């Protein structure tokens, strides 16, 4: 490769890698699989090694990928939270061993599984958990103390603790919790997290700690960052100590006196990974002796005393026997490949989503084809290609009618998926009922999927309005229902009538309208009557709403059957009014950024007052910012506001604007 060619390719790779770094670390929504990302990074490293004049300080090979989000206050790490150098072959591990020995170290190694989650720091003073933060870029992370405190595995107090202790761990989402969350997101017509790592990161970085608490996160602690009043000779000793304090530590941390034994342990861990309740994407070799680590030191990105071996994705072939098409809550048709069972990443797999007709056409998947299957993120099966077509196979075509109700299916504008728009479709009725009763909607306890299926199958419920006409005798006729459980279900249904309007709007399952949008609509219009007669222009005028959301609402209220459904719900006594506190207007149209420590208000309290009085609380300063509300130690946001000429308020001036 010539120099100019190498320069162009290096720039292309940096753009792709940095984009995926932002998606992976900051938005928890990567576009590339880990293996694809690793291959691009290795290609860039190879170019920079061959042409060292192309290396820049800004290259993603020279720094950790994450940044600290403006949603949270920043934490500067006293001990840098370094990344690890990756290896993809055993030969690279042997080369690592040779470099360690060339530095004059006769190494003893520890080998540990590498958890695929979000790296965090936990700090304790006098045995009390005082602060938790994300890694960020390794130097500056995000303060997520409140969210971390909801994770049951993290001790709030430590027995016989030192004056100060900082440990590093990996927050992860167990597979069981991930599948529950994914199912709930699909029922609520939300885009589900792609894998447990993204789910864990997205759950930990919630502004509402209650959301984090509901996600079933766990943690493994794997390093002692700093400690006062204690000293240790080896990493193995620190893990024993951490475990004695009550932290969850991976039980498989073993000591090896040669690189070949360490490699054999990595192979063993790789064979076990499919049986674990959590994701691992590799195994880590670390020099065990802490004084040897100090001798070896670090680069500006990696420690020279550790290396991570990354397992390749496992791909197997199978033969497609059927393509099943199911209908979701909003009428979307989803094709699923059914193939001969294969053992993949630790489990038996015989089904994988094909997403939509465009994907089927792109891959040219046909009945009888031999296809390549892998698990995305080692957990979700997906067909990634066709090895060969079956004898006499023909191109697959998606159905022209709904497999549930037989009505014609349509392509709506700007949509890839086919959709059944028949409001009487039984498949949609089931999903609608489950969604309507879900906790984020009408919160009808006891009405889960199994009960919903019975209600639909027995013809007792055709629309959600039928719930409110159910009799005790009808409920007692359902399987496994006795007097008490029937009374409890009917009581929960009756209780749901008093829910605020936003819960009903969300429960109706209007396409593109989530729970936050439902709350904005209910508060803005005040009643169902006002909402159902609102024009697309009036809805689009709400801050945060676009034309797509407004169009979805107008189309929903214009559909055959919607008016009858709402009339029946109203007649049954379901609340149709917004009963929450009305917003004030003192800050209407203003965007205010809160920064620093205020005398009497927390940041959350100040932002709540802004919202309650018609303003918008923003986390970042821009030309659109109306005011910055600043307290002590305001930092960079105040500096930027002053540079842009944005007015700065103290707490007393802010309260005066509110008339307090």
Question: What does this 3D model show about the protein?
Answer:
With 660 residues, this protein is an alpha+beta fold. The chain has five domains: 3-62, Helix hairpin bin (Helix Hairpins, Orthogonal Bundle); 74-182 and 193-310, DNA ligase/mRNA capping enzyme (D-amino Acid Aminotransferase, Chain A, domain 1, 2-Layer Sandwich), CATH 3.30.470.30; 315-410, OB fold (Dihydrolipoamide Acetyltransferase, E2P); 426-571, DNA polymerase, domain 1; 591-657, Rossmann fold (3-Layer(aba) Sandwich), CATH 3.40.50. It has a five-stranded mixed β-sheet. A five-stranded antiparallel β-sheet has the order 14-13-12-15-16, with no helix packed on it. The protein has a four-stranded antiparallel β-sheet with strand order 5-4-7-8. The termini are far apart.
């Amino acid at each position: 490769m010539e120099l100019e060619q190498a320069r162009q390719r290096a720039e292309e790779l940096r753009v792709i890698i940095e984009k995926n770094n932002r998606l992976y670390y900051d938005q928890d929504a990567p576009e590339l699989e880990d293996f694809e990302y690793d291959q691009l990074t290795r290609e860039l490293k190879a170019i920079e090694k061959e042409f060292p004049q192309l290396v820049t300080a800004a290259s993603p090979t020279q720094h950790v990928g994450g940044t600290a989000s403006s949603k949270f206050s920043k934490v500067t790490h006293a001990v840098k939270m370094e990344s690890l150098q990756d290896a993809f072959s055993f030969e690279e591990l042997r080369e690592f061993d040779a470099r360690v020995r060339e530095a004059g170290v006769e190494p003893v190694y520890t080998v540990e599984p590498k958890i695929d989650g979000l790296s965090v720091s936990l700090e304790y003073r006098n045995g009390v958990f005082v602060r938790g933060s994300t890694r960020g870029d390794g130097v500056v992370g995000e303060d997520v103390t409140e969210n971390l405190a909801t994770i049951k595995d993290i001790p709030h107090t430590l027995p016989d603790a030192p004056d100060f202790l900082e440990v590093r761990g990996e927050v992860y989402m167990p597979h069981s919790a991930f599948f529950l969350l994914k199912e709930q997101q699909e029922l609520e017509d939300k885009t589900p997290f792609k894998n447990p790592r993204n789910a864990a990161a997205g759950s930990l970085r919630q502004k509402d700690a209650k959301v984090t608490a509901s996600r079933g996160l766990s943690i493994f602690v794997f390093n002692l960052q700093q400690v006062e009043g204690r000293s240790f000779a080896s990493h193995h000793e620190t893990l024993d100590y951490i475990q004695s304090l009550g932290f969850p530590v991976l039980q498989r941390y073993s000591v090896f006196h040669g690189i070949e034994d360490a490699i054999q342990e990595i192979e063993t861990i790789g064979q076990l990974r499919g049986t674990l309740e959590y994701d691992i994407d590799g195994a880590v070799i670390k020099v065990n002796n802490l004084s040897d680590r100090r001798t070896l030191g670090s680069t500006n990105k990696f420690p020279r005393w550790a290396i991570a071996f990354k397992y390749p994705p496992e791909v197997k072939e199978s033969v497609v026997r059927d393509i099943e098409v199911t209908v979701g809550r909003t009428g979307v048709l989803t094709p699923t490949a059914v193939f001969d069972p294969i053992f993949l990443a630790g489990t038996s797999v015989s089904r994988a989503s094909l997403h939509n007709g465009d994907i089927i056409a792109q891959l040219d998947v046909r009945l009888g084809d031999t296809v390549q299957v892998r698990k995305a993120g080692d957990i979700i099966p997906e067909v990634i290609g066709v090895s060969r077509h079956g004898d006499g196979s023909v191109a697959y075509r998606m159905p022209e009618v709904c497999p549930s109700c037989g009505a014609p299916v349509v392509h709506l504008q700007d949509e890839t998926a086919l959709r059944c728009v028949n409001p009487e479709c039984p498949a949609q009725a089931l999903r609608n009922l489950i969604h309507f009763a879900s906790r984020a909607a009408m919160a009808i306890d006891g009405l889960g999927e199994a009960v919903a299926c019975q209600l639909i199958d027995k013809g007792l419920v055709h629309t959600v309005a039928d719930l409110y006409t159910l009799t005790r005798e009808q409920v007692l006729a359902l399987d496994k229902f006795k007097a008490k459980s029937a009374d409890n279900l009917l009581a929960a249904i009756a209780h749901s009538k008093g829910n605020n309007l936003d819960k009903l709007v969300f429960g109706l399952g209007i396409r593109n309208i989530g729970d936050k949008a439902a709350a904005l609509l209910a508060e803005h219009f005040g009643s169902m009557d006002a909402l159902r007669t609102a024009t697309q222009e009036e809805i689009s005028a709400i801050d945060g709403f676009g034309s797509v959301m407004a169009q979805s609402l107008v189309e929903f209220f214009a559909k055959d059957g919607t008016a009858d459904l709402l009339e029946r719900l109203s007649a049954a006594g379901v609340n149709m009014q917004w009963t929450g506190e009305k917003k004030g207007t003192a800050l209407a149209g203003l965007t205010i950024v809160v920064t620093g420590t205020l005398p009497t208000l927390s940041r959350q309290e100040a932002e709540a007052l802004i919202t309650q009085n018609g303003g918008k609380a923003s986390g970042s300063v821009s030309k659109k910012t109306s005011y910055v509300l600043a307290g002590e130690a305001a930092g960079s946001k105040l500096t930027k506001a002053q540079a842009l000429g944005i007015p700065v308020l103290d707490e007393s001036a802010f309260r005066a604007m509110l008339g307090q």
